[in-house]
Structure of Glycoside hydrolase family 3 C-terminal domain-containing protein:
Amino acid sequence: MADTGTHIEAAVETALGKLDLDAKTRLLAGQDMWSLPALPEIGLASLVMSDGPIGVRGVRWTADDPSVALPSPTALAATWDPGLARRAGVLLAQEARRKGVHVLLAPTVNLHRSPLGGRHFEAYSEDPYLTGRIGSGYVTGVQEGGVATTVKHFVANDAETDRFTVNNLVGERALRELYLAPFEAIVENARPWGIMTAYNTVNGTTMTEHHHLVNGILRGEWGFDGFNVSDWMAARDTVGALRGGLDVAMPGPGTVYGESLAQAVRDGRLDEPEVDEAVRRVLRLAARVGALADVEPAVPAPPAPVHGEALARELARRSFVLVRNERAALPLRPGRTVALIGAAARDARVLGGGSATVFPAHVVSPLDGLAAALPEGALSYAVGADPTTELAVADRGFTLRAVCRDAAGTVIGTGSAPSGQIQWTGTDLPDGVTHDSLHSVELTGTFTPRASGRHSFGIKGAGAFTLTVAGTTYFDDAQQPADVSDPFEAFFGSPVPRAETELTAGEPVDVSLTYVVRLPDGIPLKVVAFALAHQEPPRDPDALIAEAVEAARAADTAVVVVATTDRVESEGFDRADLRLPGRQDDLVRAVAAANPDTVVVVNSGSPVELPWREDVAAVLLSWFPGQEGGAALADVLTGAHEPGGRLPTTWGSLADAPVTRVAPSDGELPYEEGVFIGYRAWEKEGRTPAYVFGHGLGYTDWTYDSVETDGTTVAVRLRNTGDRAGREVVQVYLAPTEPDAGRPARWLAGFAGVEAGPGKSAEAVVTLPRRAFEIWDEAAHRWFFVKGSYEIQVGRSLADRRITATINV
Ligand code: BGC
């Protein structure tokens, strides 16, 4: 399907032949934040791109333009089901088509190298093989829907600290066996139509100019024939980027391509045929996605429609990982009363922050989900602890609109503002408003508090602001965020508190925040970005815990939802530690002491420390579960469905984690650990994490009866010995029989999911890829098949190995 038809190649050549140098170079440069210019002379529509990866935001950064929000990529990987990833992809293509998007800026297939990586929720796993399988399923699905993907961020963008400048020093072997491996597998299995080159530098060359990795390996060795787009603002040099294989510089209008590229050809610094190569790849993309008139696209008719809500719910429950379940605490026995506790149980954290943000039309919180699933009177709720340590974008209780004025103060347009956040990225200014005429934006409306007490209001962004609440002006000055090293600071930075006032629950007050528009310094981007922020009156943390303990005591079961916040896990910065923010650890301990039947639901995109884990009955990891997360949680807690997830990444404490460093020194971050990251490193160091890679319990039991293998295919017979139907992820690890210090003790070589009813048998058939036996020979610069004796270890996780076979290859 993803193959380039000869008709496409012919159409590309014809179209190219009709373009002059200026048109060609214009096509390679963003015309705004999200699109390339149309070239009507060749019937080329404007190619539109959008993030990615859990939904399709579209070209507008606003809740006015909602999208289905699927669970976080870590959750998708926890399903260990490439087929499910493929179905997610088909849905996302449907969403993209609905929004006029041709290119989805996803998936993210960087690896979980250090648990401190702030953006891990957006990547899949610490394991390159699992990442490659899930990523292949995802790309296949999106492209089956006729929409392009850009597999990102090529390569070694595994942390956020100094991401624009960091020089990651990665050995050839680690690059090949770990960081390049998912990209290679996806190129081979799913033929992606695009790739995104990263901000960072690898071994001295910035990725948007990396001739060796892009032209040499990706295109040369692997045969990638798609287009290469820069990460946003990553392209720095016209000649370097074009020679380094970069086809498209985003965003625009100011880029290193366009006029600068035409000039470089005219000056003789580049040759036009070099430009043609890049243009060909963009035209091929256009033809594939149906943006080139009179050319049949790669997918002539879209696949059957997918029901987004149902898929979001199925995916979430299939991703939840039950890591502990003592005394069969779960599923909840019918008739039991439940005390639901936690701020995130009511105000659910369903997705991770940054460019991955989408705006779902609705969110089912755990409180909504359980209230719908349990009988009347069976559920109580207490906040317990509020992990938010700072103001958040004004949302609940606010009714706002955006009023745009010119320099004379005349209203020139009005826009809707579903939340207190304005992110107008160029094309989405309100009707009648242009960047030239726009002088100020006022967010104005009312706020109706849900609690009485001292409310805080604040401002996010850089520039001159005036903040007025209930008739009093609290701030009328300029503010500048402390850290402006990341040009997207206005998107990711912290709000600054500017006003505190006593308000009464249910009594509306007027609020107004005026911003004098200042386009970002040093960035050729037309982005109007700022936000009104708010925080509820603080409550005494001890009183909140005491209230939760009372609720837990009065109920049969306590379900505590603990969570990270968007100041802990987001694009744009790394984590300082792995602790749950605020008093949440104290809360769990207190509730567990009051009720032995305490179930903890962990709402985070990547690992957090769970120091109380042995003191509670059950622990369920729910990731960032997407818009239907609360409904899926009810499905799993009540036992309507079993939790289907297995850990795609080791969960352990920061003190024990073998690889943690994310901060460069003198601009360099050496990947000193070589091929030993994730479980490979934990095993090498002989350390035991809280929960191992691959771990996850269902609601039934399995016995592994037999394994047969010829060294290529592994056939495993297993039996469901429990009393309900279930699904098992059969994991196959390969371990050299003679330990070899240069190689991990074992590594994931294959897996397969099987289903069986109670008492029934099932067979899992896993094919071992040749690559599982190979290492990269740094001296000879080639793959080397390591002959010898291997144990094939089959089981439920890295540590729970049930049955083995030895082979000689
Ligand atoms: C992110 C990319 C994203 C792009 C566009 C960048 O900051 O690193 O993943 O696709 O912005 O939003």
The chain is about 25% helix and 25% strand.
